Give the backbone structure.
Amino acid sequence: MRYEPLNLGRWVIWGAMALVFLVAPLVFSGGFALTMLIQMGTMIIFALSYNMLLGQGGMLSFGHAVYSGLGAFLSVHALNLIGKGAFTFPVTLLPLIGGLAGLAFGVLFGYVTTRRAGTTFALISLGIGEMVFACVLMFPGFFGGEAGVSTNRVVGQPFLGITYGPAIQVCYLVAVWCFLSIVAMFALTQTPLGRMANAVRDNPERAEFVGYDTQKVRFIQLVLSSFFAGVAGALSCINFEIVSAENVSPIRSGGVLIATYIGGVPFFLGPILGAIIFIFFVVALSGFTKAWLLYLGLFFVTMVVYAPGGIASILLMQIPVLRARRFGELALPYALAAAAGLVALAGLIGIVEMVYRLSEQGASTVLNVFGLSFDARTTPPWIGFALVLAAGLVALRYASRLVGARWGAIQQDLLARRA
Amino acid sequence: MSANAIELRDVHKSFGKTKIINGVSLAIGSGERHAIIGPNGAGKSTLYNLISGRYPLSSGTILLNGEDITGLRPFEINRKGLSRSFQVTNIFHNMSVYENIRCGVLWAAGYRYSFWHRVGGLRDVAQRAEEVMEKIGLAQRRNVLAGTLTYAEQRALEIGITIAGGASVILLDEPTAGMSRSETARAIELVRSVTQGKTLIMVEHDMGVVFGLADRISVLVYGEVIATGTQDEIQANAAVQEAYLGAVHKEIASA
């Protein structure tokens, strides 16, 4: 039977998630780790809200940063007004202001974008994204021009000693909002609207003939989604204490699309994984290499081509295999493929890094890896890395064939057993 | 206020310069089972698409239970109690049988665009969906993805989605298209049982299907209704024999 009202498994999953949110800031308590966690939490909300459009409603948006960004701008002004004593409002609930602002702009812009689905929706969302970005720069009085609007999050009376001065307090603020948002957005997928959003995504015509105005389904879905985008915007405002045109930029809109897609559009879990990986690239990897954006792009393209269901699909595909206790047969092929992939990656990174060394004016052309030095102006390292890359790719090809063969055999057994 | 479930008054439809429906007037009483037959290209499906709001009319009026529904959109017409199926199976392929039926139930059950009800906890919706699945004989297949059903099962599901909302006027577009003889017989029984007490309008190509099921039959040829009447009247009608039955006999003879 399908509907057990409250099954134990669900409580275990949600409980485990709450525990992760509770413990993560204590375990990763270093300054940099906290920065990462805060941004991951914010990005999780943003990516999940984006997937309410793309995954659940079939709406490919190129302008989702509009809602988070404008939510952030309203939040930053609200925070400044609170700071001036214009009104009292707990900073803890500031995301509510961001969310409502996002929702209001969702009503305004969504009315235009959701009139059409498919390509037309995508193009209008792109147009609105560009328009808002341009407007933000045109009205420096409100939006602060290039520099943006800065603020101070430590305002008002401390509540139970919480001032949001220390990063750990911000981290827990994000954790609480992130957890609540995940629960709320998951609950939304289980409502009549959530289900009909899926129906409209899959077969809009049939949905119309069972009584649903597809335009209205898309509209309400987008408005709810922009609320959560606004919540994410407010949290980023509290974290960075500055909001600028970059917050509404097409780059942000593209970023959330990439994060969501990498994680896995067809699954609720997908954007959560995608957000974590994306922030890892943006925050952690960018500290190591200037080529991080290139790596992110390559990763994205690889996912689109080889795993369109994202990381989540790769993980969830293993569950039936694990249940049938057949994972052991795949462990070796997986390990071989991973090893081959790492070799290929090493070759690729070597080449990319050397290209960046050469292209940068005045920078050292020497690449230091594990105590070895390679000068990009000489030929041998190029040949060496190219050979490593080629060897890795060839090995990967064989390993993935092995994975494919074993995988196919297991799937056939599972199918036969079911029949 | 007329007692007619559906009334078409001088309905025309052209695509560009091509006239597809050319002045159709038709009144179908409440509770009647009415079949529209006609040779290929006569405009049967187009007529359906006009009645259900899929295409706009070029001119004319369509009344549903005495109310003018001309120019309304499909979902508005559906909410007024008219539901249709499709000739080419039109279901939610990525959803289970149960979820497909539930999509058909939700609006009529009054949950509209609700985002504050948990859909799994709606007893009335679940009960109605179960009833429909029993009726169409897919209760055992409730958790199967619609896209993986057999063709006959998909056709049954198509009918299930159509009747799920409890509409009083049901339009079925060739419910037995592409079925084997035994499947057709079962499908006809299904149509008969699910449309009890409702107004049924069905398009059919297969003559044997229509005779015995329909109270009255209309014959559509080149966008015009050339005859309307009972089975006997239609069989006796010379114009019909000429235009349609004759053609079918010739087809059979040459086959």
Observations:
- The CA atoms of residues 111 and 117 of chain B lie 8 Å apart.
- The first strand of chain B starts at residue 4 and ends at 15.
- DSSP finds nine helices and ten strands in chain B.
- Chain B has a mean pLDDT of 91.
